[in-house]
Amino acid sequence: MVLLSRIAAWSGSALVAILFLGQLVAYQAGYRLGRTQTRRDEAPGEGVGVLLGGLLALLSFVLALTLSFANDQFYERRKGTLAEANSISTAWLRAKAVRRPQGEAIMEMLEEYTRLRREFVAAPDQSPSLKAIATRTNALQSAMWTDVSELMRAEPSPASTALMAALNAVFDSTTNERFAYDLRLSTRILWLLLALTLLGAGGLGYQLGLRGPNAPLLAGLLFLAWSLVIVDTLDLGSGRLGGIRTSVAPYDWSLEGFQPMGRQNVSPTVGGPGR
Which tens digits make up the pLDDT trace of 9-53? Predict the structure, then answer.
């Protein structure tokens, strides 16, 4: 499965082609086996269609199950990105309300923290920068917690208490997001899906071989559809492969909100105060 992941990271089209060719080979092997069986027996077994129907039904079930798992994982990553960006913005605003040196230091560190989290989400699979991002993220968390702890000892006010709670929410959101990106589709389920796909292609060819006429064009269209769905499922379930990626827009919006109001180009709304 590592090999498939590397191929998918290099080119999704190449993975589609490999899966398509594998099914086509299995189909042709099954068809020739069916033709050979027909020459030996006068009447082909009627139970082949029933068995093939059960195999294809099982393939459809596993494919739908895998797609559901992949969609859930994509949703968790997307939800985690938005939650983390919102928690960082909340902590930044509460640090600004403190109006002490520790608050200003935390504001600056949160801005760098946001850029790091953006890089984490946008990093490709097996990127060497992921380890450095994790190390710097942990260092910033320790530094911010040290500052807020000093602030609580020096001035235990409602504002500092709220800031501590907000930073704790930021750290929890980061842990959730890292876990969502480390969670992958089950290797066993993916191997089962690939095996059932090849068996289904071979079984389809065998049944057509028993009945006589070959339908390579229609079979090829079916195999192409199966290949595209499998690759899209792998793409959807992997946070750093392919083109289905989690958007980094929430982090960009947070960084824009950190800029002083004087630097922002805000157009007045119709009927608003700028009218």
Answer: 556 677 788 888 999 999 889 888 888 877 776 555 567 777 888
Q: Mean pLDDT, the chain, as a whole number?
A: 83
Alpha-carbon distance 82 to 186, whole Å?
25
**DSSP state, residue 186:** -
Closest C-alpha to 154, from 196, 193, 206, 100: 100
Domain boundaries, the chain: 12-255
Q: What amino acid occupies position 35? A: R
Cα Dmax for the chain: 94
Give the span between the Cα atoms of 241 and 221, in whole angstroms.
Answer: 25
Q: Which of 20, 22, 27 is nearest to 215 (CA)?
A: 27
- The pLDDT tens digits of the residues spanning 119-166 come to 999 888 778 899 999 999 999 999 999 999 998 888 888 888 999 999
What is the residue whose two structure tokens read 């157009």? 267
Nearest 5°: CA angle at 115, between 130 and 158? 115
Mutual angle of helices 187-211 and 47-98, in 10-degree steps: 150
